């Protein structure tokens, strides 16, 4: 590991810790040349499946887009960031566990709706009304009735 202070290529690991969710390793290192300490973080490099849109286009999965969609549906709702992070993590774990190279956008949308239904019913209805492109009030009413049950 290259020292960020002096650029020397030899450093020693002084301490290693595994994060609580076990997805990240934190290492304290010390440069053998300048003796300064610094921290590095290691995480696995995983590749998510490509998302296949309705029109057939294939786009890379982007966690920020998923988080933004959830954030829009949850706007001004009493759901904290930790719950949103956990929902994103569950969706990503499910995507990886599928073992597919491509996943239809509709399947990803259903995963998002399932997580929103657990988090907040109003956010779920917001997302579903846009996602399913409701044409009239009866479709909206049917969804609200489904949530009430």
Question: Could you explain how this protein is built, in words?
Answer:
With 149 residues, the chain is an alpha+beta fold. It has two domains: 11-42; 50-148. The chain is 45% helix and 19% strand. It is built from five helices and six strands. It has a three-stranded antiparallel beta sheet, with no helix packed on it. Strands 5-4-6 form a three-stranded mixed beta sheet. Helix 1 packs across helix 2 (81-98), helix 2 packs antiparallel against helix 3 (105-119) and helix 4 runs antiparallel to helix 5 (137-148). The longest helix has 18 residues, at 81-98. It starts with 10 loop residues before the first strand and ends with a helix. The mean pLDDT is 90.
Give the uncertain stretches in residue-range form: none
Largest sheet: 3 strands, antiparallel
What is the spatial order of strands in the main beta sheet? 1-2-3
Number of domains: 2
The general outline is elongated
How much strand?
15-25%
Q: State the order of secondary-structure elements, H for helix, E for strand.
A: EEEEEHHEHHH
Can you count the helices?
5
